[in-house]
Amino acid sequence: MTPIRFGILGTGNIARQFADSLTISPRTPITAVASRSLDSARAFASPRNIPRAHGSYRDLLHDDAVDAIYISLPNNLHHEWTLRALESGKHVLCEKPLALNLQQATEMFAAARKHNRVLVEAFMYRSHPLTHAVLQAVRSGAIGDLRHIRTSFCYRTTRAGNIRFDRSLGGGALMDVGCYCLNFSRLFAGAEPTAVHAAAHFGPTGVDLVTSATLGFPSNILATFTCGMDLHADNTATLSGTAGYLEIPIPWKPPQKRAEYIVAHSTPPKMDHTGVAPPPRQSHFIDADHDLYALEAGDFATTVLQGAAPAISEQDTLANMKLLDTLRDQIGLTFDT
User: Fold this and answer.
1) Single pTM value for the model
2) Which of 26, 171, 188, 223 could cysteine-pair with 215, CB 3.0–4.6 Å?
């Protein structure tokens, strides 16, 4: 089995989660890591038995022991370092959002084609079999005709120096976690929205702390979502249809074992009640062969080695970026590019 040897660009929290998931993966070994300082790279590499540590991003791109780069840098650096990695002959798995805007993302995919390399945006939940199972359930009519999609992805953090609060780095709740809600809604609607309405609350650093939006899709489907960085929420997803509704308790980081979705039915109005009790809530549990980020890396390797369709296509990424641009325009969130 030919491996895809990963090099990790950046040593932040997401890089740690990615690396920890791949430590025992023979198909997608991590052979190198780079940080802006050699000490930081070594501190990341040592406990994970990563054999090579680099004190500059550029050195990683010229490492012959690396086939693909996983980019976990701040949002404003995705465009530059993806282009550099592709020019160095590396495949790229880049954290979401792929870029700061649609123009940057379009340039990145053009570079991938020019250098005959694979570029994929990293939405890890799309590689979990739970997502596949729910999509199949909805498309098979488990809840009738889909009418509404509700998602939330929120957390509360006050950590000083957090890059998500820095507008110059492409921060804000919409870019950090709202992009998941958009991707999910578009996936299950199976179309692009024809109407978008958004509102946001901004913090003192000039980024959105909370954004809520309503999306109107063809086929009479509506979607609503809230994303935020200074509030608590249930962080679930609900798909409502004409014959029932489906709940996903943990849609964004489903566990490896017993990832759950629930098909349920609400009580009909008294005027419509036939005397027959609605079916009970029915839970379905899905197991995965590997941890979430290892699944993502495995899908990426299959695309590189076998030419399989990527978990997130170029068209999917570009449509999500276009929608992010529209929402940012509506709430007044701008970046210097």
Assistant:
1) 0.95
2) 223
- Does the active-site annotation cover 96? yes
Domain topology for 126-292+319-331 = Dihydrodipicolinate Reductase; domain 2 (3.30.360)
Q: How many angstroms separate the CA atoms of 177 and 9, rounded? A: 21
Q: What's the confidence (pLDDT) of residue 126?
A: 98
Domain boundaries for CATH 3.40.50.720 within the chain: 6-124+302-312
pLDDT tens for 285-313 read 999 999 999 999 999 999 999 999 999 99
Those residues with Cβ within 8 angstroms of residue 255's Cβ, 6 or more apart along the chain or in another chain: none
- Cα 39 to its chain centre, rounded Å, is 30
CATH architecture designation of domain 6-124+302-312: 3-Layer(aba) Sandwich (3.40)
Of 17-31, 65-79, 199-213, 253-267, which range is least confident?
17-31
The Cα 300–Cα 181 span in angstroms is 22
Instruction: Give the torsion sign (CA, 63, 64, 66, 70).
Output: positive
Q: Which residue pairs from 158-167 have beta carbons closer than 8 angstroms and sit at least 24 positions apart in sequence?
A: 158/230, 163/74, 164/207, 164/229, 165/203, 165/205, 165/207, 165/229, 166/74, 166/205, 166/207, 167/205, 167/206, 167/207, 167/333, 167/335
Tens-digit pLDDT profile for residues 99-128? 999 999 999 999 999 999 999 999 999 999
User: Of residues 90, 96, 253, 270, which has the active-site annotation?
Assistant: 96
- Looking at the chain, the domain(s) classified CATH 3.30.360.10 span 126-292+319-331
Q: Which of 43-57, 115-129, 161-175, 264-278 is predicted least confidently?
A: 264-278
